[in-house]
């Protein structure tokens, strides 16, 4: 098999964590072709990417030496891990490489502070430097453990557009480049350790794929190399039936479909963003979510296959506002809904849930609480004349509320699921404020008061025996 495996920042955040990674790779590389994608080191007391970004902002605010000041700490973080993982020769070779990387961005930061301008392009150069350090460290750790490995900057592999800070891959060019560079290594049983997060434009300027972008890097490489599977090593045993902090007997789901994964990640199960894994989902490459710190656990396998079962998981997102626009003039007037949602979009608010009953007396939508004030202001502006004609009578906001989502593809066409959900809530005396279910029936979402959120999740988990 050909496996592309990504290790997140905490999974590579210390010498002990990297030692786990080395053992995992040793195991898999005996039977499979393996490519690693790594994030920057996330140590409990020093988060590399955050620290770099902070220093860049300090530089533009006039602290020209900010980067030069944090550089020794970051070098120490990497070299401390190196000292316990690498042979002395590897250690000696790594340190000057790291110095060159930091000297470069320290120089750059001085210019930023003189110019008083931090462009997204310069920020990408700085913020992606942690991945470059870590790829070098981990490749050296693999070599020190007797494996053949090389560090590889994804600027040589992932070609992107010029949207600095949130670049999009140009897949055809990326695929050609990746195959040309990585295929020969894999054929010679050499393990490439590729930087997550970064790419480069056609002309070779470094870009980043957005915060948390290493998952995206992994999916892009998995798709480009036609991987048999793509594995995401995280700090959890896979996708769970519910948040274990709320439901103590929540457990890992052994298998999920892509559709279910997308529904779950949307509703707060902080696993994989659908956009991030689109490249592998399009090619129907199976995904696994595994735990670096519990590698014996088989985790969750996510694929195109339907997985038996109806309601599989229940999640909740808090800090949400419900905005209701209502009035008699909304009945049978085309275009009102379009104007409402356009206004909310103009306010930059993300609509999380929509519900309108067929009596058309009101439209209700949920948005993150931090966006609700802006959304309401924009709605009042948009609907000024409707108010004066009394077509629209009120805009009400209820906050904070919680959206609870019950997810599972098997709910489709199975009668009685909604009855069971609402029966469980009724038995608990929980009032439901709004309800939404799309016709795909993969997800039933409901809104409850903030104090009822945990109990709603618990009772739904219980009634379905999840
Ligand atoms: N290091 C980058 C970040 O913190 C990318 C990643 O970890 O996925 O956003
Ligand atoms: Mg990360």
Concise synopsis of the structure shown:
The protein is α/β, with parallel strands linked by helices and 466 residues long. The protein is 43% helix and 22% strand.
Structure description:
The protein is of the alpha/beta class and 466 residues long. The chain has two domains: 2-234, Carbamate kinase (3-Layer(aba) Sandwich), CATH 3.40.1160.10; 313-463, 2-Layer Sandwich (VC0802-like), CATH 3.30.2130. Helix content is 43%, strand content 22%. It has 15 helices and 19 strands. It has an eight-stranded mixed β-sheet, with helices on both faces. It has a six-stranded antiparallel β-sheet with strand order 15-16-14-17-19-18. Strands 6-8-9 form a three-stranded mixed β-sheet. α1 (15-31) links the parallel β1 (2-7) and β2 (33-38). α2 (48-60) runs parallel beside α4 (88-115) and α3 packs parallel to α6. The mean pLDDT is 94. The site of aspartic acid has 11 residues, from loops. Aspartic acid (ASP) binds next to loops.
Spell out the CATH superfamily of the largest domain.
Answer: Acetylglutamate kinase-like
Q: Indicate the structural class.
A: alpha/beta
Largest sheet: 8 strands, mixed
Counting DSSP H or I runs of 4 or more residues, the number of helices is: 15
Tell me the number of structural domains.
Answer: 2
Q: How many strands?
A: 19
pLDDT average, as an integer?
94
Report the CATH architecture of the largest domain.
3-Layer(aba) Sandwich
**CATH topology call of the largest domain:** Carbamate kinase
N→C terminal distance? 33 Å
The strand order across the widest sheet is: 5-7-2-1-10-12-13-11
Q: Note poorly predicted spans.
A: none
Radius of gyration: 25 Å
Overall CATH class of the largest domain? Alpha Beta
* Tertiary shape: globular
Associated small molecules? aspartic acid, magnesium ion
| Strand residue content | 15-25%
Give the % helix. 40-55%
């Amino acid at each position: 098999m050909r496996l592309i495996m990504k290790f997140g920042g905490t999974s590579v955040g210390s010498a002990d964590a990297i030692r786990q990674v080395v053992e995992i790779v040793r195991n898999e590389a005996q039977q499979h072709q393996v490519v690693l994608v790594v994030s920057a080191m996330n140590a409990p007391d020093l988060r590399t990417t955050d620290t770099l970004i902070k220093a860049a902002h300090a530089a533009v605010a006039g602290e020209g030496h900010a980067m030069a000041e944090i550089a020794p700490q970051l070098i120490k973080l990497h070299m401390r891990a190196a000292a316990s993982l690498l042979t002395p020769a590897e250690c000696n070779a790594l340190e000057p490489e790291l110095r060159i990387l930091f000297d470069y961005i320290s120089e750059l930061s001085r210019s930023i502070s003189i110019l008083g301008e931090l462009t997204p392009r310069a920020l990408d150069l700085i913020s992606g430097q942690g991945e470059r350090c870590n790829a070098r460290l981990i490749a050296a750790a693999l070599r020190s453990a007797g494996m053949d490995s090389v560090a590889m900057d994804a600027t040589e592999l992932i070609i992107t557009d010029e949207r600095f800070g949130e670049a999009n891959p140009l897949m055809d060019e990326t695929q050609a480049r990746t195959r040309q560079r990585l295929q020969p290594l894999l054929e010679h049983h050499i393990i490439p350790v590729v930087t997550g997060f970064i790419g480069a434009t056609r002309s070779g300027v470094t870009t980043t794929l957005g915060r948390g972008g290493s998952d995206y890097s992994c999916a892009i490489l998995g798709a480009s190399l036609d991987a048999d599977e793509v594995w995401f090593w995280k700090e959890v045993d896979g996708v769970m039936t519910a948040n274990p902090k709320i439901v103590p007997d929540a457990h890992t789901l052994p298998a999920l479909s892509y559709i279910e994964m997308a529904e779950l990640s949307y509703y707060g199960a902080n696993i994989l963003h659908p956009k991030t894994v689109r490249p592998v989902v399009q090619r129907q490459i199976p995904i696994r979510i595994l735990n670096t710190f519990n590698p014996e656990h088989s985790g969750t396998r996510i694929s195109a296959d339907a997985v038996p079962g109806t309601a599989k998981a229940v999640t909740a997102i808090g800090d949400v506002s419900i905005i209701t626009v209502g009035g008699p003039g909304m009945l049978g007037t085309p275009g009102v809904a379009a104007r409402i949602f356009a206004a909310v979009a103009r306010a930059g608010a993300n609509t999380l849930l929509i519900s309108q009953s067929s009596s058309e007396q009101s439209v209700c939508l949920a948005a993150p609480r931090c966006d609700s004030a802006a959304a309401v202001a924009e709605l009042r502006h948009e609907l000024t004349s409707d108010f004066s004609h009394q077509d629209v009578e009120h805009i009400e906001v209820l906050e904070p509320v919680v959206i609870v989502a019950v997810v599972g593809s098997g709910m489709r066409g199975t009668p009685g699921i909604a009855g069971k959900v609402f029966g469980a809530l009724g038995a608990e005396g929980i009032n439901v404020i709004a309800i939404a279910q799309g016709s795909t029936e993969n997800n039933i979402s409901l809104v409850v008061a903030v104090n009822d959120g945990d109990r709603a999740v618990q009772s739904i988990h219980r009634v379905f025996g999840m």
